[in-house]
Structure formats: structure tokens, C-alpha cells
Amino acid sequence: MFKKLIDDCTVKSPWIYHINSGSCNGCDIELVAVLTPRYDAERFGFKLVGTPRHADIIVVSGPVTSQSRDRLIRTIEQVPDPKVVVSLGSCPRSCNVFKGSYSVEGPLDKFVKVDVSVAGCAPKPEAVIDGLALAAKILEEKRRNMAK
Amino acid sequence: MIQHFPVLAIMTLFLASFLVVLFGSRNKIVRGTITMVAATVPLVLMICLIKPVMIDGQVISYWLGNWEPVNGWAIGIGLEVDALSLFFALIVTLTIFLSAFYSLKYMSRDDTLEKYYVLFLMLSGAVLGLVLTGDLFNLFIMIEILTFAAVALTAFRNNEDGPLEAAFKYLVVGSIGSSLTLTGVILLYSQLHTLNMAQISAMLQNGQNSTTVFAFVLLLTGFSIKAFIVPVHPVAADAYTAAPTSASMALAGMVNKTGVYGIIRLLYIIFMTMGLSSVQNLIVTIGTVTMFLGVTMALNQHDFKRLLAFHSISQIGYVITAIGLGTALGLSGGLYHAMNHTLFKGMLFLCAGAVLYSAGTTNLDRLGGLAKKMPQTCIIFLIGAFSISGIPPFNGFVSKWLIYQATYERASQTGNFGFALVTVIAVVVSVMTLASFIKVTQSVFFGELPAEFNNVKEAPVSMRIPMWIMAILCIVTGVLPSQVYQYLIRPAVNAVLSPVKYINVMMGNGYAEQFLSKAQAAPDKSVALAGYWQPESWLLLFIIVLAAFTVAALLGKKDRGVQSSSAEVTDGKYATFYSGEKNEFSRVGGSDLFWGLKYNLRHYFGFIGNIHSGVVNDYALWAVMIFAVYTVFAFIFLL
Amino acid sequence: MQILWFLFYILIFPGFLFTMFAGLLLAGIDRKVLAKMQRRIGPPITQPFYDFVKLMGKETIVPDAASRTAFLTAPVIGLVSLIVTAVVIPIGNFLAFRGIADVIVIIYLLTIPAVAIIIGGASSGSPFSGIGISREMVAIVSYELPLILVLLTVCKKAGIMLTGGMTFSLSDIVVYQFYNGTMISHWAMIPAAIAFLMIIPGEVGTQPFDIAEAETEICEGTMAEYSGAPLAVFELSHAVKMFVMTALFTALFLSGWTTGSIILDTIIVLAICILVTIISMTLPHASAARLKVEWLFRYYWRIVSGLALVSLILVWCGL
Amino acid sequence: MKVAIANLFSRTDCERYPFNPKTAPAHYRGRLVFHPEGCIGCGICERVCSPQAISTTVVHEEDGDRITRVFHMGSCTFCQTCVDFCPRHTIEMSKDYDMVVTNEDDLKVMGTYFKAAKKPAPKAVEAAKPEEAAVKIETAADSAPKETPEAESAPKAE
Is B412 domain-assigned? Predict the structure, then answer.
């Protein structure tokens, strides 16, 4: 009875959880810049949360270093079900300049299925907002066919 | 026929304690049956007495050996049971029954059990005797038996060093208290040539000279030491921690109530000095300081039972503050809280015993996560914790609410700002009680389960039955305060506030009128409640809204996200979130909680920390100091 | 017929649905005004409603270390006791259920949700929630002292003419304000009103005082292990607590007038509640950062209690 | 506190991005644009690209090689080194910042050209049709190599 209501609201309040698996913080400050007054992602209901348990969208930035690999996998596992993984910047996509280094374990999709990837070495905030909006739509589709 | 019930109850207990030695020393079953029979008989007798004494307001007087008073002089020993003593007798017999029931299983691991049961039955007989007696010297004898039985019980586990040292301290301070009471009784006897309480209170009305005032001070100090008020409270803390739990439950439940009973009897009926505002201020300040000190000491304890011990001291502080007010509302609040205290404190000590029995230790820092292994004990503990910290539907709240009203009403009537501060301190103390019990909940029952306690089993059934009985009683007295008030508390308050009736019944009618020259302003027994609290209707609303909520939840069940938890311990999804780390053992122990509070009050905690030095002569010094304070106070104000 | 009214009162008007709606509305307005204060647009006012419904749709994970029953029942008990408290607070001078709870009882009724959060946090078994519990408990201890001082002042002020010299019953307080003007108009009560305004964010746990659920330091503190429906219930009880505290403020300090019809009364009270929320919760949220735990304790026990004590002494000597 | 109240009544300086689009500033280094016809296949860009985002695939046909140069936007740091080093200035950076994709191939900018073998057999060359690359330049039919590639520049296939 409430199914349609719940599906509609899922797209309206996606909560973000940010994991930094070895990034140079270029993408991190871009992501946080999205929540500042100028770009204000909160208009669409985005909110940065502290625990994976509360998260819907997991934003991963940085090439997956060997130290952060199993922590990354465990944290992403701990997110409740309709979840979307977003790779921010080119590091998680292909660990760009750090390719082949002894401590980098390779791109993100070796460990987790990546739904949306926002390219750009430090992508522009507008691009990040588009990425998150796309992620929210995918979240709703996942919720729609999960609930069936 | 009901005349004989009080003596019957006391005698069964003393008789049984001798029988246990004769027959019970070898096999367990005889010992168990004798104890249980001896524990149930007084309870049944007291319940039969409720009808005549409480409802019909009849006061039973019984002369041992039928030594009736001869032309106005009481020679024999008289037992007098009015509503107040029956109220305390009910509490005492209930505790005896439950503690005996609990100790059958709990003490099964110790040896030489017949010594334990002898001491326990002596203790309970003495407490019951003290509560029912109408004779001052008989009161003193019961205090003597009581003290020595309690000291021996504290030292029961003499293979460890803790109990021995605690028992020694208890012995020293206890004997100081008893000797002071004895001198008081002697002085009174020298002045009034009688030992019967009713006659003493009648004869004291026409003029008090300095000896009777000094006797009053001696008796007051003796009873205060028995009730473990502020300066002498560390003794109680050590004694309750060291005693075996079923005994410490009896100590915390009954023994400090005898001190409170003594103070009420002394102030309201024998000396009738409660009307003087100076005595009220003294008693209220003592109560408040006890309340505050007890809780703050409990906040940074590392041992479960020691924390409970300090809490029972602070709750006694509550009761004494309420009684010290002198108004009918204050008295009813105090008595109600005394009954509640016995219920939830007994239950919490039984929980501590259950934890000790199955997990083997009560050290807060090593325990953890027992809720999964001992679910029933956890539920009972939560009921106890909620009632002691005064959460509304439970019983602790009703009595604390009455006490707040009493103190604040007293403050606004007399315009004395001090009583308003007492109300504020009382509320803050109640919140700190909640804080310390949350600390215990987190460190004992929730949080991470350390590996060594993996094979901990639930406490055995025969230990859980008394706990469940107390839990149900806690909820009942919390939810039906008006009925409890009407049948138990109001008759007791009326009995306390009408000494004339007490005297007439004992000494024959018209006796009191000869002596009561000046018109004794009978304290008004009216109780005007400033606010209102109907727990039944609150509970009704709670259930309706809860039902509405569950209906709404069930309606949307199929659309909501599925609820998932895994049976076997899988790494990952169902592991606790350690920000990604493997599940290494990082737990929040009991002692590192409330950093903000302890940091701010660190000077205060440091100061009271080293007051409790644990050196015997310090405690003896404190006892004599409180006696000096009382004397100076009495001679300034009372003469 | 009486039963129908009774059910209507408890389930619809001042009870179940109204408090939820009012709470969510207040939370939405609070976030919107906060955004405006930071010169950004901020989420739509119905955002808390979307959050609540979205969380309902999420999967609920019960971690292994958690003790299952306590973990799942704690939020429900917290929310239900909060709603029952809301029923007891008079709106305008309309009181749905007379004679259930007075002022002191309301303080203790407000501790039930806090204890529910604590038991929930404790039962989830994670060290983050362990730290969250200790901070929540310190917060409770710290705001209880000024709260009792303020309420004693109000009781004393409202009960001066009555026999006992003081009254604990809320309806008497409202009647008193009906005759001698709202409590704020007496200048001796101004410090008490300010102190109560400072207590509201502490009790509700909004930004400068939300040390117990600090996202940054201890990952949502007591809520660390909650997801899905229990978390939604906790968010809802957070919002309803906002409404309850502001309604209590209006009942204690700003009531006494009535416009005849109940509906008009409720609208005006809601408007006052919104105003009070903005002053007491959004303004500190926009201008102050999160306090450390012992600063919170010191702040409440010194500054706010001092204010409350000043007005208690003033009222005590008959002003 | 004062600033907060002042802001309450001032205009929000927040860009309503999705509703009115925003173009990147002037010299913004966005997505790469590759003109394959100008490329002489020297491979300098491949060597000089630090994240090795550029790769070449060579398809030998009977009369020459079809060389496709792939710029993987997913692993490019947009440092513009390749643009500076390219002797023929065939690579330039557009102002398109919106590189949000769900599958990885959309991020590949490709350009193909044909290098005839020694015997000059002109062959009609149809452009290798990569799947819908975001921006793709159709190579002109007679992309006869303007100049014979220098000796060492035979592009080594990855």
C-alpha cells in the first residue's frame, strides 16, 4: 500500500557516506564543496552521514590502497540494502597516476560493482551533483525492484 | 487470638535458628525445610494481621508472661503492634522470605551452611522483634542480637580478607552505636523508672530535664549509626560488599530500615520533638548530605555490589529527609520510599548475586555483554534500575514524587529557602542514580562479551523465582499508588501522628490524658497533594498508543525493508561497525564513562575519595564526631 | 460516545498523528531556516517526512553483538512515551486529559525517551554507541539541574495565592496566567524563561549540544548501529521531542489567553512553537559549533543554573 | 549570531545549478578532443602521459595499418602535458566537464587514422566505428600520410 510512496521518497532523501581509500583529498574537498552554500546539494535532500548503517549512496574516492582494501570491502558490506556505489574522480576508476605502484591494489571495480563513476581529476562540483542525482535515480530503481 | 501472632512470629524464627544447628548440620534437605518453614510462618502471620491493624485501625498490645501493668506502672515486657510497626514488619518478613528462598541455591557452593542459617535466622528474628516490640530495653536487646548476627554474616566467607576486615569495622562502629543506645536507655530508666515506650512518652510530656535530653541525644545517635547516615556510611558500604549476596540483600533491605524505624519511633512518639523546627532542620540536612554523598561515591565505583551498597545509603538519605519534614505528606513519602527501597534494592542485590553466581566476578571492568547469555536477569535488572532511578511507571518514581512535593510544600509554607534547595538536590541525586545505573547496564549487560564469559549460563530457576516476585511487586506498587497508599501508608502515617492512641491502648484508657497537660496540637493528618499523578490512566494511554503504533507498523510491513540478522557470526555485514577495522576487542568499560561529569567534579571526587580511607579508627572517630554534633545541637536548641 | 472522543483525543488531535505532523513540520522549518541563515536554499520543508519514509524502506540490519529484543523495542518505547507526554501538555487552555501528570511528572516522562535512546545505544554493542551513551547521560545530568530550578520557580509563582503556597499542576499554571497575564510579563520570570530557552536545545539535542550523536567524532554516537525502521522511529522521536519541548515552553510561559475555538488556538500555539524553535534551536545551531562534553556540563551547571537561580530567589522573596 | 540573523533576510547566493546550466570558465581543461588526421603517430603523447592514459591499437591490413589512439578519460589527470608536447597540436581540451557515466567505455576518446604501407595503394577507408563515443571525429577519406613517419616512431602496440 505504501510501496509507491516509499519508492518516491527514496529518491528525495539519499544520504551520502564518503570513504577515502587513499585519495589525495582533491575529490574529497570537491564532494564537501557540493554541500556548501554555493552549490548546496541539500536542496535535493543529500546529507552527509557518519556511519555506513545510515547510508544510501557510498562515494569512494582514491585508488584502493592495500591498507584500505579489506576495510573498504567490509564497510561497503555493512551498508543496508538498496545501496549505490559512486566512484569519484579518476583514481577509483583506474588509479590514474598511481598505476602499478606496490601499494595500490587496482581500480575499485575489482572489489565492488561500481554503479556511477564521475570522471575528472577533481571533478567539477556540478559534475558531482549530476553524478549524485544519477545515483539517486539508480537507488530508486534498485529500491523498486528490490521491493518486488 | 490475633494477640499472639507477633510473639509467635518472633519465636518461630529464634526457635528455628536453634533447630537448624541441632538437625540441619549434616543433610541439606532438613536444613532447607526448617529455614523455609521458619521464613514463611512470620510472613503469613503478618499478612493475617493486615486486616485488623491496618483496615480496622486496631492496635494490638501483648504483655509477655501476662504481666499486666499494675495501677499505672508497666512492669512486664509489652509487645505493641500498631500500623507503623506492622508496615515495617511486612517489609521485614517479605525480605526474610525472599532472602531465605534465594540463599538455598545461592549458598549451595559454600560449606558449613548451618552456621549461615543460624546467623540468618537470628538476624531476621532480631529485626522482627525490634520492629514489633513496645519496650525500650527489649528494643536494645534486639539491636544487640542484630548487630552481632550481621557482623558474623559479613565475615561468613572468612577465607578471603575483604569480609574479615569489613566485619571488624562493622563490629567497632556497631558496638559504639549499641553502647550509646544502652546508656540512653539506662538514663531514661533512672529518670522515669519504667521501660515501656508508651509510658515513657506519656511521662515525658510534663517537663524534660537535661538528663532526658541527653538520653534523647544518645538514643538518636545510636539509631542514626544503625541507619548508617553520613559519617558512618563507609562501614555499610564495606559490609554490604563483603557479605554473601543473600545476606547483603537482607542487610540492605531490613537492617538499615530498623535504624529508620528507631528514629521515627523516637522522634514522633516517644519524645514528640518532631514539632520543633530545629530538629526538622537537623534531620533534613543529615538526610540530604547522606543522599548526595552516597550517589556521588557510587558514581566512580568499579564493583557492582559496592555501587549498590552506596546507592542503598543514598536512598536511606531520601527516606530520612522525607521523615525529617514532620508533615503528613513527608512521612507518607518517606514510608512509601522505604518500602520501595526494600523491593528494588533487594532485587538489584539478587541480580548482583546471579551475576556473581554465573560469571564469577562483579568487577565492572571485566564483565560485559551478559544480556545475551542471561536475558532474564537482564530484564529484572532493567526493571530494578528503572525503579531506583524513578522512571514513571515504576515504583521508585511515585515515592520520589511524593518526597519532592513534601519538601517543596514545606519550603513554601515555612518560607525557608533551604527546603527548596533540598528538592533541587533530591532531583539531581535521582538523575545521578540513573547515571550510575546506566553505567552498570552498559558495562555488565550490554557492550562486548569478553571471551572468558562465553560459557556463562542463565542463573538457576530457584534463584530467579524470588527475583521475579520482587519485579512484579515493584511494578504493582509503581502502577497502583493510590491503593497502596490507602491500605498501607495512610494507616501507618495516622499511627505515627496519633501517639495518644498508642499510649492509651498500651496502658489502659484515659492514661494519656492525665499527663498531657498542655493541649498537644495533634499534627494535621491531612495530605493535600499539590499535583496529581495517575499511573493507571497513563499506562492506559501508553498501551493505546502502543497498539496504534503496532497496527501502523504491521500495515506497512510488506512494503518496508526486510529485517535481517544472521544466525552464525559472519564477518562483514552483521559485524559491529568499527569504521572498517577487524573486530578487535575495543569496548567501553564501566569506569571510563561520564568523562565530562567526572572531569568537572574531579576536585570533589578526589576529596570524598580519600575521606573513605578504610581505616577503622577513622570510622570510629566519625561516629563519635556525629555524637558530639548531636549533643551540641540538642543542648543549644532543645533545652 | 465518550470513548470515541477519548480515542480521538489520544489518536488524532493532541496525540498520535498531530504530534508527529507538528514534530516533522518543526524539524523541516528548523532545517530550512538554518539553510537560509547560511545563505543557501536548504531542503524543502517536508524533507524530514521524506527522510522518515525513505528510512522505512531501508533494510534493518540487526548486528550480531546487539541483544535483539532491546535493540528493536527501545525506539518504539521512546516514541510512544513521548507521544503520551505530548497529550498531557495543555494547548491554549485546552487540556485533553485532566489530572494525569503534573509538572514534575513531565520532567521524568521526558527522561523515558532519553533512557530509551541510551538502552538502544547500549544494546547495539558498538564502542561508538558506548561513548555516545556516556555523553548522552552527562547531557541529561547537566540539563536536569536548571530544568528543575526553572520549573520550581514557575510552580512557586503560579501557586502564591493557593493554600499550599505552590502548585505542581499544569492547569493551575494556565489558570494563573489567565488571571495575571502571561508568565513572561512578570519581570522576575524573565531569567527563568531565558534559562528554559537555553535548556530546550540541550534536551532535544540539536547542533551545539548534540554531542551524543556527533556525526564527525563518534559516527552518530548512540545511533551508530541503527538502520531502516528503528532509525526512522528515532528520527521521528527526535522531531516530536522538539514539538513537546516548545509546547511545554508555551504552556509554562506564554499561555493563559484563549480564542474560543480550539482549532484557532492550535494554529497560534503552532506559530509560537515555530518562533520558539527558531530562537532557541536554529539560532545557536547556525552560530555556534559543537561543545565539548565538559563544556556542556559547565555551561549548564553554571550559566543556565545561575539564571534560573536568580529568578527563583526573586520569586522567593515575593516578586 | 548577528551574521546569522543578517543572512536570514539577505538573498541566497546559491547557484541553482541544474535548472540553469553553467559553462566552465575560459581555459578550463575538460574532456580531450583528438584530431586523428593531424596525428603523425609519433607516440610522444603516450610516453609523456604520466598516468599512461593513452594507448594505441594497430590493426594490420594488407595495405597499411589502421592505428587507433585511445585517450582513457577515466585515468587522465587533465594535466594538459600531452597537448603541449604534441608536435602537431592534434589534442586539445574542451570545456566539457560533465563526465558522469555508468559504464566505463563512455570515457574513452578515440581517434583512428590509417597509415598506408610502402606501396601506395590508396584504399577507401571507412572510419572505424567505435561505439557511440561521446565526441568522435570522422577521419577524412584520403588520410594519406602527409609525411613518412620518422624511423623510430613505429608505434609499438601496447
Answer: yes
